Amino acid sequence: MIFRKRIRLLVGVALATLCSLTASGQGYLKAQGTQLVDRAGKKIILRGMGLGGWMLQEGYMFRLSNLGQQYRIKAAISELIGPEKTEAFYARWLNNHTRKIDIDSMAAWGFNSIRLPMHYNLYTLPTEQEPVTGQHTWLETGFALTDSLLNWCEANQVYLILDLHATPGGQGNDLAISDRDPSKPSLWQSKANQQKTIALWRKLAERYANHPWIGGYDIINEPNWGFEDPKDVRGTAEKKNIPLRKLMVEITQAIREVDKNHLIIIEGNGFGNNYEGILPTWDSNMALSFHKYGNFNNQEAIQKFLTLRDTYKVPIWLGESGENSNTWFTDAISLMERHDIGWCWWQEKKMGINNPLEIKVTPGYEQLLAYWSGKGAKPSAAEAERILNELLENLKLENNRFHPDVVDALFRQVQSSQTRPFATHQLRKNTVIKAVDFDLGRQRSAYFDTDSASYHYTPGVNTVGNRGRQYRNDGVDIEREGDRYYISHSEAGEWLQYTVQAEKAGTYQLSFRVASPGGTLSVDVNGKRVVKAMPLGNQGEAWSLTPTQSIRLNRGVNTLRVYVDKGGFKLESLHFNR
Question: How far is CA 215 from CA 162, 212, 317, in A?
Fold first, then answer.
């Protein structure tokens, strides 16, 4: 209820002030030297979120990596329920996945920009399906969805950045990100696909030329193609990138025929990061995007982009990042903002914990996954339709799991090392606190875990963060057993902090529900050691309560830290009795 009231309040303020903000100069983003500024010349740090999974499904988002591209997912659904019902499913998907409540919520959390990953086939027909060769059939579906999204962004004073995520034919060898069918010509192998891409951007620019809450045009997402060397499938080693530069120049020229207002954002080859042969820029209102995943968060990791910014006097933007732990999120954003670089996270919702919203996985959906992976029986058409309808309802924000720890890491923790309670722990006569409900905050402030983030793109570094990938996205390892969550993979030196409120000062009896092969732990209360190297027994995988320990608490707020002296045990809950 508080969450909904906050959204209504935010929207009311947004609507009341929109006209005055526009009149006072808030509006088109512009490149001014190495910074992005509004029409009044005020520096803007974009703090954005990408709407992955809405117009373009990638298999991993829905535990369908074995299917990969959207056209293959669609074919698998059609095989179960038929083409007509599949079309109805996708229409409802577009209506349910992203709605006004999503944009209202993101604005309330602190985002000032949204990146829309567009699939071209919602705006125009594939080249091979055009009734007249060389002409372009325009489809209202994509434009209408974009219009609605723009209205919701405008109501919240949030910039909307249009991102062509799936180009005609597909822009790379990573097939899922552009829904590419490798049996057909790619963007780079077909002049007709290139012409359609140019025409689509001209159409979009013509439609939105005078809309100040369009933040810019991100013209080709993550090109990854070997132009000189076909074996360079990711395009990371290309030295000239002539076809990529040529097409981006032509797109820019088409946009400028109808739109002189909006920022144009370009991405290099190699998933946005290889700018060899592409610069200098060819337009005065342009920014460079780079993407960053799973590497260290130090200046060395971004130095080449800082050098490009200073050499060519052009703004840079972290146009896509995320898919990691909260520790990595906070460190990456802190690095960006120290260097006046805006950022856009990936993504608002999917199946998994490392986004603000998590789409629930039901037993029925598990049944579909088993069938599609060859490990289960084929459901009937009626059963498959029921499961898919259930999924459509679970797409809606009100049916998602909200992860406040992710939002806290993206915003508050960037600015503050202070901790906050994850849940209210009011101690009465008998109180049980779930071990997984430790405080919100940074690594080394709310908890310490020896493995708190993934650096999977750094050779020789094999950390993973939360190994169980359950419940919350902090670096602490959390697993699930039925409807219970517990801390796993405990290691010596790790600790968890809990903020508790005692109704009365006095002595409390504290015990722990553990499964232990012989671990020990210690407890601090308000900075003082009160339990030292407590043995947890040697019951192996069986769950049991430890003997009680007497601790004294102050009336009101107390801070407890539970330290792992000897690890290997699982911790499910803390039990207080008075």
Answer: 8, 7, 12
Locate the DSSP E strands across 111-175. 113-119, 159-166
CATH class of 417-577: mainly beta
Tell me the Cα Rg of the chain. 26
Query: What one-letter code names the amino acid at 211?
Result: H
Among 378, 361, 279, 266, smallest CA distance to 61 is for 361
- What kind of fold does domain 2-54+98-359+395-406 have according to CATH? TIM Barrel (3.20.20)
Q: State pTM to two decimals.
A: 0.93
Closest to 446 (Cα-Cα) out of 431, 433, 436, 454 = 436
CB 26 within 8 A of CB 38: yes
Q: Indicate the helix (H) or strand (E) that contains 523.
A: strand 520-525
Q: Is the separation of the CB atoms in 505 and 540 below 8 Å?
A: no
Mean pLDDT by 10-residue block, N- to C-terminus, for the chain (578 residues)?
40 37 57 92 96 98 98 98 98 98 98 98 98 96 98 97 98 98 98 98 98 98 96 96 98 98 98 98 98 96 98 98 98 98 98 98 98 98 98 98 98 98 94 98 97 90 92 97 96 98 95 95 98 93 95 97 97 96
Ranges of CATH 3.20.20.80 domains, the chain: 2-54+98-359+395-406
> Could you give the residue range(s) of every CATH 2.60.120.260 domain in the chain?
417-577
Helix (H) or strand (E) holding 102: helix 100-109
DSSP 305: H
Burial class of residue 460 (count of CB atoms within 10 Å of its CB; 0-12, 13-18, 19+): exposed
